[in-house]
Amino acid sequence: MKCLLLLVFGCTTCLISQHVAWAGPMTVPAGLKPGDQYRLVFVTSTTTEAASSDIGYYNSFVSNAASLEPLLQTLGTTWTALASTSTVAANDNTNTNPMSAGLPIYGLAGQLIATSNSDLWDGAIAAPILDNEHGTPVPSGFNEVWTGTGATGKPDEPDDPLGTPTPAWGDSTTSTINWVDTGGYYESGGTHTLYAISGPLTVVSGDANQDGLANAQDIAVVASEWLKSGTNLPGDVNGDGEVNSADLAVISANWLQNAGNAAASASPMVVAAVPEPSTLALAALSSLALLALRRS
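Above: the chain's sequence. Below: its structure in token form.
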């Protein structure tokens, strides 16, 4: 039985539930630690024509695709299309120009796609970008992706870009150069998917359930493991081997920070926008959550 407690911190309403595993996109890749930065990439479940020469159209398209998945919305990041038009190259549109180091990029099944910007655009990637915004592998027949670009992140030929009659396209089932440029062409009036990449993300301290946000769900994880000791305990967010009030303090210090704004947490504007409950309040909530879990 899943027990829910609805509680209020002043102006902040929180939902606490028993920690339950769910299927969906992996938004915090395994092996990363609080403070580590990364980016995510997926292939859209929806399709579009490639007739527009406006890169803003494709950025809006992938952003709308990301909005279909609540776990991606939780991250609080922006999404851009790994695509080129005649005026904007893919590596510039996505801030992945090989001239800058960049960040590791992961797919939504947790697989490493590229270690850096230069690794993304060196002709091959570490693994195919198989999963859509829901973390589900694309079905057969939906592996053709509009890119408008070559392997270096910019068009190789004048007729490559999106918005031309026969733009370049990639294959989401491969990690060879064909992931971005198969060398083939389709008429731009056909409909295919797009690749979407996030902005920079930071692993949040206190994110016990690894959904990219420190909130009441993480308190529930701590409550479910209260006073346990050992290794690899999700509720042990401070990594000292024990689940106790010290872990609640970490959640409190990072209250409502998400992966998209954690890197900017030093900004007074960010802190002021997310009221932080006291550790005492969190401890009280933990006790209530424990009671609910026992009754369930």
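Residues 1-22, 264-275 have pLDDT under 50 and may be disordered.
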